Amino acid sequence: QVQLVESGGGLVQAGGSLRLSCAASGSMFRINAMGWYRQAPGKQRELVAAISNSGSTKYGDFVKGRFTISRDNAKNTVYLQMNSLKAEDTAVYYCNAGVMGYSGSYYAGDWGPGTQVTVSS
What we know:
This protein is mainly β and 121 residues long.
């Protein structure tokens, strides 16, 4: 029921920065968090970061402090600021609207169409 519109993907050189945006619309009744996943060819989709409507965050271990997730609740929009990008960050990045539990675990819900991020070395 949630429509997710992504923007900001593209080509960037290693060491550079990129900001992804995802705006959600539609039924948000069961949604209290949004996040980003990524999937490289032949690899399993993995969580990059998620943020609840209260500001709690969860990051994938591979981020190593390079990425920051933020959210504008009024606009139902989530952002992913990616700095110090590496070639291994190349993947399709998917926006997601889901639920974050009290423990901080993120439960994926509806998916965006995905946007390609390519980091050139």
